[in-house]
Amino acid sequence: MARQLIRAIAVPLGGCTGTWAGGTAGGCEFPCPSPGRIMRPDDANVAGNVHGGTILKMIEEAGAIISTRHCNSQAGEPCVAALARVERTDFLSPVCIGEVANVSAEITYTSRHSVEVQVNVMSENILTGAKKVTNKATLWYVPLSLKNVNKVLEVPPIQYARKEQEDEGKKRYEEQKLDRLETKQRNGDVIFPVINPEPHTVGYSQSSLIHLVGPSDCTLLGFVHGGVTMKLMDEVAGIVAARHCKTNIVTASVDAINFHEKIKKGSVITISGRMTFTSNKSMEIEVFVDADPFVDEPRERYRAVSAFFTYVSLSKEGKPLPVPQLLTETEDEKRRFEEGKGRYLQTKAKRQAQMQQAARQ
Amino acid sequence: MARQLIRAIAVPLGGCTGTWAGGTAGGCEFPCPSPGRIMRPDDANVAGNVHGGTILKMIEEAGAIISTRHCNSQAGEPCVAALARVERTDFLSPVCIGEVANVSAEITYTSRHSVEVQVNVMSENILTGAKKVTNKATLWYVPLSLKNVNKVLEVPPIQYARKEQEDEGKKRYEEQKLDRLETKQRNGDVIFPVINPEPHTVGYSQSSLIHLVGPSDCTLLGFVHGGVTMKLMDEVAGIVAARHCKTNIVTASVDAINFHEKIKKGSVITISGRMTFTSNKSMEIEVFVDADPFVDEPRERYRAVSAFFTYVSLSKEGKPLPVPQLLTETEDEKRRFEEGKGRYLQTKAKRQAQMQQAARQ
Amino acid sequence: MARQLIRAIAVPLGGCTGTWAGGTAGGCEFPCPSPGRIMRPDDANVAGNVHGGTILKMIEEAGAIISTRHCNSQAGEPCVAALARVERTDFLSPVCIGEVANVSAEITYTSRHSVEVQVNVMSENILTGAKKVTNKATLWYVPLSLKNVNKVLEVPPIQYARKEQEDEGKKRYEEQKLDRLETKQRNGDVIFPVINPEPHTVGYSQSSLIHLVGPSDCTLLGFVHGGVTMKLMDEVAGIVAARHCKTNIVTASVDAINFHEKIKKGSVITISGRMTFTSNKSMEIEVFVDADPFVDEPRERYRAVSAFFTYVSLSKEGKPLPVPQLLTETEDEKRRFEEGKGRYLQTKAKRQAQMQQAARQ
């Protein structure tokens, strides 16, 4: 993996294992350490598990800082990095209230107009010293001019230690570009309300939330932070999951999220979620973010973001519980269930392949 | 106005060096008053007007503190005062970012099981020194045992300076009791979703929001603070108003709010709002709060709170703007419009009577 | 202690017209005190003790309000008071979730360009009525013009009841001025990361946190509130202390904090902490705040604030526990340990002298 050390951010952390950047890009797993924020009761659900959305918000803040800093590292038009896409992310282990979440970030690839950032989250129990890797996320940012928000600026290139790093990065870049285009085409779908739904149907658990975009939700450019949007999406997905199975639920993974359009301060956003698929022990929830540009703009409501969240249900001892099967009624619901099943089987196959490969090594 | 000074709360106030009101309230250790709270960007809408909900939350926190303190002032079972009702409140003048909101509270009547608190809010521009009264609110609290949340305790009686103060208080007590009963009977109503609504119809602007009740929303008893609920209600009402007229809107008044049932930590609450009436320059929005007791409770969804909010639309110069007329379609919508008109005319008549009385004095 | 009553602050609570208890307390028009703020779960650590940083933030907000109000009390250029320094503060007793924190403030001295504010915090258990003094803090503010943030304005002088009050204030003013100059010279130091540190070494517990400065962190001038900075500093110091001794820890005191430079909205700040000294039952942690002016400024990273926090470790019963000794390795660490010991012994001697004096009286 190409590793471009961001000096300014490389300073702080303590418990960094392995060698610390012994020159260009050594074996230190967490090269750009930062934060360390204590998880508070409001970051967590009633069972004390920190919301996936809280973690996603921290990840995005780290990514925004490192990529904005990089894009301004050469003389030129000042800019702010805007989140364009988050790759699929697994929540590897739950984080609890009182633990410290350490977030590290590094830039792993740059194309002409975009920056790839790898962010890792490690939770640490500062009383016992125990540490666990919680998330490894890949984010794509695009630099927007501070003077003209519709102008995308050029990204200063990074240096790669080895040529393959650049080639692999380019491959990832092309793949995500393709996927973004595809997703954009699927965007017409709408979640319609259902009156008096039966338990375990799609209509029974579907939920939506409106949020008025305030100043603290926004970047210097006056657009919503991607992390704020993801936190709200996780909130809605979590409520859908809990309504369906009426137990303690936690985020297991998030599929790639594409940020199709910016959302301006003062907008009202509607975040809607519906269950698309259940396996024996997991639920897939599709989440849409629609924006109404408020008050002073003639524009109509538009789809800003969409994504799939996967949740699992946990017993009081933290063991995965069986999930009630989703009852599909309409043709569309049945089709979406099959598509969800496809994604589920694909992920499962990929994970098994990885495990076999790891076992062989 | 009946004024009964609560000993405990008489202490911390301000500029009173040396003797505090003739000795009995002596020992005034902390001479300067709590200096209020500076209003931040997050407390306000895009035009810089502080949300009515922010003010309502501050009012309720002050009421909860003074009434809990009073109810525990005599040896006995420890208790927490729970909000039962807020009387109709006018927002007399808008508060802006950077201003300081000063909140004061006093107990004005006690019945056997309830406490009436008068709370006043004054906004202060600390640059110019200008001060304006923003709100005068009356709240009713009921003391609930800390050991058994379903047990209502007795309230220590206050002393009245004059007999009439007690009589007037008793009259207010009886009136609100009657109104609470009436409201409770209206509670079956539900806001149904509308598909593809036309502009300016009820369905076009109706909105709802879900909120997962977290620890910071709750009192020591693990139930939602009334102020948190009111802030969310104002948020939904504001979005309904803005969707209807697509301009900058502010809370003008709130009708009496009755808190029919407690809401427990971990519940998901749905706050729904629909427009019921428009006059030339105001909009009335009905707001419901429904609670789903989460995860570990067998109980069904129930109506916890309901209220009417009145909003006005403001130009950039802060002048009231004409409001598009609400298009009513169903019989129920027409009936609710007429009821809203009744409330509007009644309030108008009452205000004119007060102004005439004031002019005569 | 010099007590100069600031007229403006004696007034502000709301709307209670009519006579106030016989007039002895003079022009105290508004008798009903602001009822403080209830401490919530998010204000506290896992053991329920409110963070020192939460208290420091409340103290600073009170200081900023009273000094801004005073500096604008005469016709002239409007200004905002910026925090320049906080004197050493002891946390006299812990505050718990559910208690009410009452904050009072008064201006005790004015020089030509600065204001000294004394802030007291009293925690109150509203169930039992028990009250404890929690903090007595002294803060220095400087009025900055609202039009030109680099222009320091003149402070309206206050009236002293006795000549000695002015003399004592002047002495305090000169002392803090000297100390500010000295601290500024020490500012080159940086906290470097350590790889694979041993337990109880400095490197093992050192921590840092980055924070993107948003609108709600800032004053009207667009610079970070001193209280926001102090809250983050306390958070980092607390993580360092918990990493070192792996128990429940609380803030015992904060040495004088000098705010050398303003921090602008949009900056990224890095707050770093390292342990410098341990006695049998206390830990001293040095905290640095460094700012990276973001995006649109050519300026380099600069040291904005630095301070020493002292923490103690508490058992489940709230009794102080022995603290593992800090292992110093480098020459610099040994020197800092000796300096910390010097501060510790000096504070101890001062406290003993005060207690002897109090006993004699």
UniProtKB/TrEMBL annotation, chains A, B, C:
Pfam families: 4HBT (PF03061). It comes from Mycteria americana (Wood stork). Residues 332-342 have a biased composition (Basic and acidic residues). Residues 330-361 are annotated as: Disordered. Residues 1-21 form the signal peptide. Keywords: Cytoplasm, Hydrolase, Lipid metabolism, Repeat, Serine esterase, Signal. This is palmitoyl-CoA hydrolase. Residues 352-361 have a biased composition (Low complexity). One of its GO terms (molecular function) is carboxylic ester hydrolase activity. One of its GO terms (biological process) is acyl-CoA metabolic process. Its EC number is 3.1.2.2. GO terms for cellular component: cytosol. Residues 29-147, 203-317 form the HotDog ACOT-type domain. CDD domains: BFIT_BACH.
